[in-house]
Sequence to fold (493 residues):
Amino acid sequence: MSTRNIVAIDLGASSGRVMLAQWQPAEQRMVLREVRRFVNQRRYQAGYDCWDLDSLEDEIRAGLAQLETEGVAIDSIGIDTWGVDLVLLDAQGERVGAAVSYRDPRTQGVMQQAIQQWGVAALYRKTGIQFLPFNTLYQLRALHQQQPDWVAQVKHALLIPDYFHYRLTGNLHWEYTNATTTQLLNLHSGEWDRELLAWAGVNASWFGNIQPPGQTVGHWRSPQGRDVPVIAVATHDTASAVLATPLEHDHAAYLCSGTWSLMGFESLQPYTDAAALRANVTNEGGAEGYRVLKNIMGLWLLQRVCTELAIDDLPALVSEAQQQPACRWLINPNASRFINPDNMVAEIQNACAEQGMPVPQSAAALARCIFDSLALLYRHTLQELGQLRGAAFSQLHVVGGGCQNRFLNQLTADACGVPVLAGPVEASTLGNVGCQLMAVAALADVPALRQAIRQNFPLETFTPQSGSTFDACQVRFAALCQPMKELAYDKAD
Fold:
């Protein structure tokens, strides 16, 4: 059997890559190569914080053209991206308005409008999705309220990966795993919820039938005239990353660590009872079953601090942070104030001061504050998820770019009190590739994919160290992590 050349286009909220995976089935060998890496930088447009879709498309096409120039015969292409954000198209297939980012403040207060009308429990029963102020449901309501001139022109609404499917193939498609991030899918029917779409003020005809991952959307015509299949993989990057996480048993949880941290477990059934609502967990679609998880702000905080302080030597910063005292400065990384503040350094310092804590002044102190706070939030979340499913976790798999931070991995093991297995780094890319291979029957199933990943991408284990200081500060940290007041859990439905 010959080598398959699989292209994975992996777009994150801060960067993107065109990756080539060469799969040699006889040896069960997989080799990854980064073909092109580029920055995904938001820009201010039409009064909003927006994605530069044209730049991203140019980079994608440049990466594909480079492979063809090299003489690589591409067998298929898959795209995964972040969730919730939309692109609007008119009847001619042209963009309407700007591609507004979830970090734009236009949705401020909209989630509270939904809760006031629907009630927390009723809305959660409908969708099973975590309450986050930037969910697509609230973006569409904000669009209806603020941009009626855009609404009047719209014929179709596509999520980000499906927009790039459209640009490469000319075909419209709505893939399941990313669609589940919107808080617009009815958990029971698996279809767009027309009542929620009506509340948001948009026409249900904007959205087509939802398709499971693994479908061929169409073909990309290469500059040399080859028609290459474009396969809709598990297009939400977390869904692809979880697919590629080599979980060893039922008591292993995953943590996708990057700009966002997403911690959860796999389940064939969703969790939507009162305990799940109190924990504010989300039931997003996976390639198989559900990803029961929680969104955690993640390394976005560190990225912003490094940008603001012009720090480009991250390993040196991590080393300096390691020398700082443990748990001297703590914040709740999930507080809404950290979604997109004007100045992240000042926001962290103000949060510490408001809690009567010392104020971190140096870059190393700010980094240590972020690392300790994330480790404690990981502990809090892992315990919460264990209580939800009625069984504690005995292992945590950390995947994605953040798993390269060995210091944070060790802090996570110490805080959570379970072994942490780190790797693979390119989890979303590998899940993207694996979904393509399964779609063409080059791999049998998910266990076969995970076995191939274990064989080709070794993991590193971090064992909890005794004498951790995290137990002593758990109570102090827990006070920072009370359920969001805007959810009004005691509200009658």
